[in-house]
UniProtKB/TrEMBL annotation:
Keyword Cell membrane applies: no
Entry keyword Transmembrane: yes
Source species taxonomy: Bacteria, Bacillati, Bacillota, Bacilli, Bacillales
UniProt protein name: ABC-type transport system involved in multi-copper enzyme maturation permease subunit
PANTHER family the UniProt entry points to: ABC TRANSPORTER PERMEASE YTRC-RELATED
Transmembrane segments: 65-85, 111-136, 148-167, 179-199, 230-251
InterPro entries membership: ABC-5_transporter (IPR053046), ABC_transptr_acetoin_YtrC/YtrD (IPR023264)
Protein keywords: Membrane, Transmembrane, Transmembrane helix
Amino acid sequence: MMFSATRALWWKEYRQNRWAWILFLLLSVSLTFKQDPSAQRTETTWSDQLSAMITGEYHSLYGYILPLHQSALLAALLWGVWLMAAERFPNTYSFLASFPVNRTQIFHSKFFFGVLVVLTAMTINLAGFLLLKLVLPVKYTAYEALGWFLYCTPLLIALFSLGFFAASWTGNVISGAGAALALSVAPVVLETVIAELFYRNPVAMALPSLLTDRLFLYSYLWRYIQEAQWWDPLFLLLFSVILFRISRALFLRNAMERNGQILQWGFTRH
């Protein structure tokens, strides 16, 4: 019975959000290829930009190229917001509560479906890179492509988790998106405030570097190029697990229905 209910919830997520996850896939998989007109022509010249993106190496024309396009980062963040908050508009949370499923099953189906879509997008990217290597001469290796996948996938999952967390305590998509964007840049704002207020305190000044180095998720794109560490993906996954557990606690505590409130604080009614 529990398996049938879980399968039904996954099917509902797939059908209800099909346009949203298709849009996410398109934003995450799209790549652009540009040529350096001054570069010496070789059989691998066409892959210069792609290779620089995967390996983090310097490109003669475009400099350092980020391993992920900014659209993929924003898409992952808003994808998390959408999965949680969009359900409040038609008030279908109350409808789901009338079925033989509990809140934990509803929450898990949403979160893990969202993570699966992120994994699918990145797997498509990785498969494309490996397929190109099989049929065309490229500068990157299969090992480097796999390293790109293992580093960037946890980053997108962390951004998805952050959006999901923001939507767990806001009342609609707009407020959830605003909260998610604010949280994503909050470490930089806090760094500036702390640096201004406690610039003479050596203990307090150690906090800003922690905020921007670890909690400012966008900085991991530059870390990939300049100083990536093997534990970075592990930290991002741990960060996602923490947000998952906090979001679940909030979801189980808050009212399912949307009554016009901006924040979803309070005790459950179902």
